[in-house]
Amino acid sequence: MTVLILTSEEDVTADMVVAALHSLGTPVLRLNPADLPGKAVLSADYAHGDFTGHLSVNGHVLSMGGLRSVWVRRPGEPAAHAPEPSPWLTAETRQALYGMLYSATARWMNHPRDAERARLKPWQLRVAHLSGFAVPPTVFTTSPRLAREFAEEHKDVVVKSASGPPPEEPGTALPTTLIGADADFSAVAAGPALLQRYVPKRADIRLTCVGTQLFAARKTAEPGQVDGRYGDTGHPWQPVSVPGRIAVAVREYVVLASLAYAAFDFAEDEDGVWWFLECNQGGQFGFVELETGQPVSEAVARWLSQVPAHLRPAGRR
Amino acid sequence: MTVLILTSEEDVTADMVVAALHSLGTPVLRLNPADLPGKAVLSADYAHGDFTGHLSVNGHVLSMGGLRSVWVRRPGEPAAHAPEPSPWLTAETRQALYGMLYSATARWMNHPRDAERARLKPWQLRVAHLSGFAVPPTVFTTSPRLAREFAEEHKDVVVKSASGPPPEEPGTALPTTLIGADADFSAVAAGPALLQRYVPKRADIRLTCVGTQLFAARKTAEPGQVDGRYGDTGHPWQPVSVPGRIAVAVREYVVLASLAYAAFDFAEDEDGVWWFLECNQGGQFGFVELETGQPVSEAVARWLSQVPAHLRPAGRR
Fold first, then answer.
1. Is A303 helix (H, G, I), strand (E, B) or coil?
2. Which of B41, B108, B116, B145 would you mutate first to test chain A, the one with the most A CBs within 10 A?
3. Is B105 on the interface with A (CB under 8 A)?
4. Does the beta-carbon distance from B167 to A48 stay under 8 Å?
5. For tag attachment on chain B, is the N or C end more exposed, with fewer CB atoms within 10 Å?
6. Does the reported pTM lie above 0.90?
């Protein structure tokens, strides 16, 4: 049984997981969907009530019957490397590749349809509430009046991007920014704003969830620091234990969201409360593993290799 | 409780359903996501473990607590009508709109995540098999050798597009085409091919499923006609009753695919067997309703208006 990794060629994090899979003796096939068709060949046959399929990359063949799991890491656009790429060729190739993979019985980390939903920030906050996390009051609005009222009610408020950096300029930094109720909110009418009550924090927390395994890391914040992603505080990421009620809430969240992998960001306030900021279903873990020594890539490799209990030979259950 | 229809401005089929909703006395709000922000205003507030949200279009306000159902008909791209549209503004607006709608408790026809999966042709064939339909043997492949072998095995074979007309030229016709085993299959290496055993048919069948209601229509085919979508045969669509085993298979299919609405296309062969060709989760029904008089738009309106049994006042269950 083989693990399929969908990612682009240069991906150091994938390299770490591939090394861990090799240590476990688990066969692995790496495919960049951009290389299909071309370097990769696909065939899926639907006949006589049955389905067979295979994928071959550089002479290595993976049959859909032998597919254990799919890790959706950083896949390129299907057919992006074709000699004559086009939106239509991409659409046809996406149909063939994902249609075949969805037809197979496999574990996904994470399934694209769950990943897509999990990216929606407002939905994240709703699920975080339902899961029992402390969530700072937040509003998404295109109404300047409601934005101002929110800022007046909560005094210190931050403004963020919901979708991340602009797709047309992916390198652009959009740091979370502190604003006051006297700010000019008129631009909110032209594009939805995400406003959130500011949480004065003494540390950033990154909690990585792999199946049922949790790895939390903590980095002390500088007093008054708003966005820990930009600017080095000089403090390292250090392993930290996970409070019991956080572990319960994480479990609730990943079940509600059907996620096998999730990276949670929290702000730890002066009282030690962990405030939910976001959950990134595709969040990086390389930097945490390097600084803390937490074996996240090994956990990912084990999850991908694992045979679900009901499929194991009887003696090994 | 209000029905929200996501569609573009010119949409005759939506007009038919809106008229049926008016007859039922069901409040309805129509939104083109392209008009947000601008004509439409949105606000979603996540505070104190709770969620409130509203959407207003031309002064009509819909609160998320009063949302009964969402009909995803033909929504425009979020923010497409903005004075300064950009991929980033679209991404932010999509986050705000769909993140808020996903946070609400509503019935969807169809939920975008189910719609997205249901569009994948290879997955459709797998689900059709599992549901008990007769499915013509089909292969999706980028291997010229396997394409030729398939054509040699099945003799009369048709080639189709999996994804439909090219997105860059949406008006282009890509009719299903009959080919022989002596065709040149070398181009398959440059783009995946969908090859299917040809079903000589005496009629086309369109079966529209709305919740648990089925409407089937039949159109006699010309002998030798391959693709009924292009060229008028002179035969009208006429209502036809649904065979029992087809009704069971349709029910299986829409449950496996989580679809509230689905339009199935079948080829009826000389023996009267209905062969599954495809299931379009967003398929048109206006032409069937006009030719057959089957009340599809009323059924859609009733499904959207319906209060699920467990939410009805006790006396009305």
1. helix
2. B41
3. no
4. no
5. C
6. yes
How large is the angle between the packed helices A244-256 and A121-131, nearest 10 degrees? 130
The pair phi, psi for residue A290, each rounded to 5°, is -65, -40
Residue from A57, A90, A103 to probe the interface with B (highest B Cβ count within 10 Å):
A103
Q: Does B98 touch chain A (CB under 8 A)?
A: yes
- Residues A120-129 have pLDDT tens digits of 999 999 999 9
Tell me the per-residue pLDDT of B121-153, one tens digit each, with 9 for 90 and over. 999 999 999 999 999 999 999 999 999 999 999
Percentages of chain A per state (helix, strand, coil), in multiples of 5: 35, 30, 35
Give the domains, in start order, of chain B with CATH numbers: 2-110 (3.40.50), 111-134+199-281 (3.30.470.20), 137-198 (3.30.1490.20)
How far, in Å, CA of B309 to CA of B304, rounded?
A: 14
| B88 inside 8 A of chain A by CB | yes
Per the CB < 8 A criterion, the answer to whether A151 and A179 are in contact is yes
Count of CB pairs separated by less than 8 Å, A with B: 222
Which three-class secondary structure state does DSSP give residue A214? strand
CB nearest to A126's CB, from B36, B79, B103: B103
Tell me the pLDDT band of B234, cut-offs 50, 70 and 90: confident
Mean pLDDT estimate for chain B: 92
Residue whose pair of structure tokens reads 């032409």 in the numeric block: B287
Q: Which residue has the tokens 């022989």?
A: B180
Q: Kindly determine whether residue A190 and residue B88, on different chains, have CB atoms separated by under 8 Å.
A: no
Least confident of B15-29, B215-229, B287-301: B215-229
Q: For residues B67 and B183, which has the higher predicted lDDT (pLDDT)?
A: B67
Query: Which residues lie closer than 8 Å to A97 by C-beta, 6 or more apart?
Result: A33, A36, A42, A78
The residue in chain B having the minimum alpha-carbon distance to the alpha carbon of residue A163 is B92
Q: HSE-up of B268 (CA within 13 Å, CB side)?
A: 18
The closest CB to that of A191, out of B89, B129, B163, belongs to B89
* Residue whose token pair is 């808020």: B100
Distance to chain A for B121, nearest Cα, Å:
6
Is the dihedral angle over the CA atoms B235, B241, B242, B245 positive or is it negative? negative
